[in-house]
Design a protein that fits this description.
The complex is a heterodimer of chains A (about 850) and B (about 230). Chain A has 28 helices and 21 strands. Mean pLDDT of chain A is about 85; it is low at about 385-395. Helix content of chain B is about 35%, strand content about 25%. Chain B has helices at about 50-55, 80-90, 105-115, 120-130, 145-160, 175-195, 205; strands spanning about 5-15, 20-30, 35-40, 65-70, 70, 90, 165-170, 195-200, 210-215, 220, 225-229. In chain B, strands 3, 6, 7, 8, 9, 10 and 11 form a seven-stranded mixed sheet that branches. Classes of the chains: A alpha+beta (about 850), B alpha/beta (about 230). The interface of A and B includes residues 463, 748, 758, 839 and 840 of A.
């Protein structure tokens, strides 16, 4: 191998310009751009969250307790390490506008002290200081609420509303507040009141579902990590939760991280489609270079030198394509930053971030390597003698083993990099495996389409328009494969997303309300539950109701080991609802072990959800330590039972025998299944009788979930669309490459007496048939993917979403028609004599 | 000449090239009788093939008038010309111009299908048999030798029984043996079906087999050398 010579030859060949490489560059640049842009936006959001960590928390750190306020020793420690401590309480409640027909709205109440907000500012409309807003009137304390709730309740500043038994005057609309990291993900809009003003509201009784938050203003330079360690060591079993400015919005940060990782993986499918275009471009380029290669071989160039000559050329073009993609991927988010920032509920700092650009560049280079090595390796197999006789010997040879190994290594490196960068091996392996499977399926489908076209050509005798189309599909295997692959992969992703999203929506929006309760009533005090039961039992429109005591607790230890060290499971993240009952609730299926005796008064026992227990590796006889209101209760798991969350009914992961929990302050929760026309009266009666009770309408909760779901599906769809755009580019490349062939065909057909309309119909039919084939294969693959995810991951069951399927088929046909017809005009308008004589 | 198969009156053809306007043919006037065979001869660049293309409606004259089988094709639209060729003309090229994505049989059947013949494939099969290519019917052009490809092209041109056969150097890409065979077949076809045959050729012995020879030089009829057998 003569590297300097190869370099000089490569340079000379590239002097001809980039003609023929536009699609190569566009495919690579677009794929890299999509990934770089997603990565840049993700990095911008993460940087924004990091910058604004303290503002998002409303303090340098926040200590949270569930169900209770800080105990004296906890408060003393916080006061010792802080310059100031602000206490707030968060809970859900009903905002009620009194009147003959009271309006009610679910709200997330934040009751604050005089120090609030420690960091950041509260923006009100009309503009006023918060303490002035809380001052209210001579008669009533003041409150501020978010605009969406004010609009829903038709409230304007100066109007009165009620929380529990306490009336408030609405002083202003709450425009923005510092600790709003999860604002968009809560169940209700925010209401801010002063903590002292709730003392007569009846809302903060024992067992109320509430969080107390202590925002800490720490001394300059405080070591947050050290303080967190100290807090967790000192109060390890108290249920204390610590967050600080290093990660001001952990939930949001994690959500953005996961969505970002997923979209990068979707972007990889775009890059794979781009790879098909890149490969086709390299094949076409090398096909045009066979004479040059033959001449070089005749002149004595070795196989290695020739390979290196073209490898260097493709390498230089890859660097160029990746460079263009990186520039666009970095600049597009910057250019669109005002628009993006406006739509984001969280802060973002848009600038250049090298890490996501490096990630995108790596993916781009690896993809280009995977898709170009194969055609490049085949330059070695071209023999000078056969080249002069014909362009290519037409036989399909596998590249030499070393190239196959190199391709395998590059592929492994790509998957490894994707796993490393996404941080989620399972999702990455499933996604990349899915892309590879879809590509493999599409290659087989392309071969099958060609085979079918050749087979059915006989049946099309006497219909020359159709026969011509089938003949071209069957004979031009390269174009058929390019079209089916490039269009098919984008449509597969789009079909899968459509089917998963559609089934999830159907399950949540259509089926869930049929089986789910109408309302959840929470915060029912023990002395109120009999009254609630009586109201529900006397109402014939109530089909069913359930009621259970509810506490919240954190599983802190498993078999006396810190729980987090034993396993990593969502059940251990934060506090969970738990209950107690003497006997299994109606419908409960105990799968293993034995339920305690109704009057069991011995050591505490637990019945745990079987599915979650299996995931966490729990067995009968294991002990769990649960921190409830700062008190540890250690109990043995004596039974597993089946817990069904599908119907949004009452499902407790953990239940204990009554004696273990009865003494702890708690409230009750009730689900009500009622005829729709009776719902309003039930809500009115219970709210009037028990103002502290909070009602959560399932339909409203479902709507909130659907909004979030819609956003995720839309983001994924944009990712899939980028894949489709790349696919369209490849289609255009294939159509452009086939233009010369079509021009020739049109000239011969015109000579034989075919009018242009007939030739056009044949070209259109060819494109439409290819599009239809790609779409049908994509639909099958997408539906299979959708079925798998819906059945095994989402567990929603699967019913084909036919509207999406039709759109996929229609889109596939339309896309190929557009690309095909765009390159049919020149063949149709060319003078046959000139075309044919040019080939003489 | 009464009722000629082809009639050209003051026909000129100019094309715009990179170096400006190029006059290909100038003031050509001639008539070809029905059933006549005519050889167009002349040096390279004299305009022989261009004249043949004009006769077949594959090229549009810059000026003058062309009548084929009593139809003025001079200003006919492209699609009307295509239909006219389908019903009346067969064209054979030096480079065969078979459609590469079709088998030999399909290539021959295509003009018959375009003309709406229900028995297109039976007729195409018979035509291939006449050319001695029955066993090659299912082969693609790339799988055939040059001589075989030209025989398929000839079968394709002859299958619709055209009234006019136009052949542009049909032996130009073939060796002597294959070339002679093709010429025999071409003249045999003409004799069997009585078509008018216009033949562009460089070969004097081939031209001499025609009823009339029309020499061209620099785009003009070289009337001084015109010969009639």
């Amino acid at each position: 191998m003569n590297a300097p010579l190869a370099y000089r030859l490569a340079r000379r060949e590239l002097r001809g310009g980039l003609r023929g490489f536009r699609i190569f560059l566009a495919c690579l640049a677009l794929g890299v751009m999509a990934i770089a842009a997603v990565g840049t936006i993700r990095a911008s959001i993460q940087a924004g969250l990091a910058d604004e960590g303290a503002a998002l928390l409303g303090g340098d750190a926040v200590v949270t307790f569930t169900y209770r306020f800080a105990k004296p020793d906890e408060a003393a420690w916080m006061n010792r390490i802080s310059e100031a401590v602000s206490e707030t309480v968060d809970f859900r409640s009903m905002a009620v506008v009194p009147g003959d027909d009271p309006e009610r709205g679910l709200t997330q109440v934040q009751a604050v002290d005089a120090l609030y907000p420690l960091i950041g500012t509260v923006q009100l409309d009309p503009d006023m200081p918060l303490d002035q807003a809380f001052a209210g009137t001579d008669r009533l304390p003041g409150a501020v609420i978010e605009r969406i709730l004010a609009d829903r309740l038709a409230l304007a500043p100066g109007d009165t509303f009620r929380l529990g038994t306490q009336d408030f005057v609405l002083s202003a609309i709450l425009e923005s507040y510092p600790d709003n990291s999860g604002g968009s993900f809560g169940l209700g809009p925010r209401t801010l009141v002063q903590l002292d003003d709730l003392s007569d509201s009846g809302l903060l009784g024992e067992g109320t579902l509430m969080d107390s938050n202590y925002r800490l203003d720490l001394p300059e330079g405080a070591d947050l990590a050290a303080l967190q360690s100290e807090a967790e060591a000192r109060f390890s079993d108290s249920g204390l939760r610590w967050r600080d400015a290093r990660d001001g919005a952990p939930g949001v940060s994690e959500f953005v991280d996961r969505i970002g990782a997923f979209l990068v993986l979707v972007g990889l499918s775009g890059l794979a489609v781009g790879g098909v275009g890149v490969s086709a471009a390299v094949r076409a380029y090398l096909a045009g270079k066979t004479e040059v290669i033959a001449t070089l071989k005749t002149l004595g160039a070795t196989r290695g030198t020739i390979f290196l000559t073209y490898f260097l050329q493709i390498g230089i073009l890859t660097v160029l394509g990746v460079g263009i993609g990186l520039i666009m991927g970095a600049l597009v988010p910057l250019a669109l930053s005002p628009l993006i920032a406006e739509r984001l509920p969280i802060p973002a700092r848009f600038t250049l971030y090298p890490a996501p650009l490096a990630e995108a560049a790596l993916y781009g280079v690896l993809t280009a390597g995977i898709f170009t090595l194969w055609p490049l390796a085949r330059t070695e197999q071209l023999r000078a003698a056969t080249l002069f006789r014909d362009i290519g010997d037409g036989a399909a040879h596998l590249p030499a083993l070393r190239y196959l190994l190199a391709i395998g290594l590059l592929l492994a490196a790509l998957v490894g990099a994707a796993v490393w960068f996404s941080g989620t091996a399972l999702l990455t392996l499933w996604t990349t495996g899915g892309i590879a499977a879809a590509l493999g399926l599409l290659v087989l489908a392309a071969l099958g389409v060609g085979w079918l076209a050749r087979r059915f050509r006989r049946a099309a005798r006497g219909r020359p328009t159709l026969r011509l189309a089938l003949g071209a599909i069957g004979a031009q295997r390269g174009e058929t494969t390019s079209v089916v692959l490039s269009l098919g992969l984008g449509l597969t992703v789009l079909a899968a997303v459509g089917q998963i999203d559609g089934n999830l929506r159907r399950s949540i929006s259509d089926e869930l309300p049929e089986v789910a309760p109408s309302y959840f009533f929470v915060d029912i005090q023990p002395d109120q539950i009999d009254g609630v039961r009586a109201r529900l039992e006397e109402d014939p429109a109530v089909r069913d109701y359930e009621a259970a005591p509810m506490l919240r607790g954190i599983i802190t230890r498993i078999n006396d080991q810190p729980a987090a060290e034993v396993t990593d499971h969502w059940v251990l993240e934060g506090d969970r609802g738990l209950t107690y009952s003497a006997e299994p609730r109606p419908g409960t299926v105990v799968t293993d072990g034995k339920w305690w005796a109704p009057d069991h008064d011995g050591p505490p026992q637990i019945s745990f959800s079987r599915e979650e227990a299996e995931e966490m590796g729990l067995s009968l006889g294991d002990t769990l330590t649960v921190n409830i209101l700062g008190r540890d209760i250690t109990a043995e798991i004596t039974s597993f039972r089946q817990v069904d969350f599908d119907d949004a009914g009452m499902g407790f992961i953990l239940s204990m025998n009554p004696a273990a929990l009865q003494g702890a302050p708690h409230s009750w929760i009730s689900t009500v299944y009622a005829e729709p026309q009776a719902e309003a009266a039930i809500l009115r009666d219970l709210s009037q009788a028990y103002p502290n009770i909070t009602a959560i309408r399932i339909r409203d909760a479902i709507d909130r979930v659907l909004v979030v779901l819609g956003g995720i599906a839309a983001a994924t769809r944009y990712g899939a669309l980028a894949t489709l755009v790349t696919g369209f580019l490849v289609l255009i490349g294939a159509a452009a490459a086939g233009e010369r062939t079509r021009t020739y065909e049109a000239a011969v057909l015109k000579t034989l007496g075919a009018p242009r309309g007939r030739i056009l119909r044949s070209f259109a039919l060819r494109a439409a048939l290819l599009g239809l084939s790609a779409a049908l294969v994509a639909l099958a693959a997408g539906m299979a993917g959708g079925w798998a995810v819906s059945t095994f991951v989402m567990e929603t069951g699967f019913t084909p979403i036919w509207s999406n399927a039709l759109a996929i088929v229609f889109g596939g046909v339309l896309t190929t028609l557009l690309a095909g017809l765009a390159f049919a005009l020149r063949p149709l308008s060319a003078k046959p004599a000139r075309v044919l004589r040019a080939r003489e | 000449m009464s009722d000629p198969a082809l009639s050209l009156t003051d026909v000129s053809l100019s094309l715009m090239g990179n170096a400006g306007r190029v006059d290909i043919l100038r003031d050509i006037s001639l008539e070809v009788a029905r059933g006549e065979t005519m050889g167009l001869v002349g040096p390279s660049g004299s305009g022989k093939s261009s004249l043949l293309m004009l006769m077949g409606g594959l090229e549009t004259a810059t000026s003058g008038r062309i009548t084929a089988l009593d139809t003025d094709i001079t200003r006919m639209g492209e699609d009307a010309l295509a239909r006219f060729r389908r019903d009346n003309m067969g064209v054979v090229f030096q480079s065969f111009h078979l459609i590469p994505t079709m088998t030999a049989l399909e290539n021959v059947a295509t003009p018959l299908e375009l003309a709406g013949h229900r028995d297109a494939f039976d007729r195409a099969q018979a035509e291939l048999a006449d050319m001695g290519l029955s066993d090659r019917a299912g082969h693609y052009p790339g799988q055939l030798s040059g001589g075989e490809q030209q025989r398929v092209a000839l079968a394709r041109a002859a299958a619709p029984r055209p009234k006019v056969l136009l052949a542009d150097e049909p032996t130009g890409n073939l060796d002597e043996t294959n070339g002679a065979a093709i010429i025999d077949m071409l003249f045999g076809l003409r004799e069997r079906h009585g078509a008018t045959l216009i033949l562009v050729t460089h070969a004097p012995e081939l031209a001499r087999r025609c009823d009339r020879i029309l020499p061209l030089r620099d785009g003009r009829m070289d009337s001084g050398k015109a010969a009639t057998e």
